[in-house]
Amino acid sequence: GSVDVVAGAYEHTLRMQAKGQDIRAVIELLRFPSIVIGVRKDLAGRIKSAADFKGLKIGVTAPGSSTFITAQHAMVKAGLRPNDASFIG
């Protein structure tokens, strides 16, 4: 109840609804998610997909953030478990 309108990641709408708060998205600012997963230059030859994330340290905005969820989602889609990598905020 501290704000009337917010700009943020769409997944926040889903999270708040799951917690019983009546939050609704009224404007989608982008056509596609705008999160990019980048790899250090010295690892670029070894890491070709999220399936290669196992055992790595992945930097994210914060645990539970959109970047965290996107990285975990990519890993699960590639056949890994969400805890197969370490996440650093």
Number of helices, counting only DSSP H or I runs of 4 residues or more:
2
Radius of gyration: 15 Å
Structural class, judged by helices and strands?
alpha+beta
Measured distance between first and last alpha carbons? 27 Å
- Order of helices and strands, N to C? HEHE
General form: elongated
Q: Unreliable stretches, pLDDT < 50, 5 or more residues?
A: none
Helix content: 10-25%
**What spatial order of strands do you see in the largest sheet?**
1-2
**Could you give a short account of the major beta sheet?**
2 strands, parallel
Secondary structure: number of strands: 2
Mean pLDDT, as a whole number?
87
- Please report which band the strand proportion falls in: under 5%, 5-15%, 15-25%, 25-35%, 35-45% or over 45%: 5-15%
What do you see in this structure?
The chain is of the alpha+beta class and 89 residues long. It is 24% helix and 7% strand. The protein contains 2 helices and 2 strands; from the N terminus they run αβαβ. The two termini are 27 Å apart. The mean pLDDT is 87.
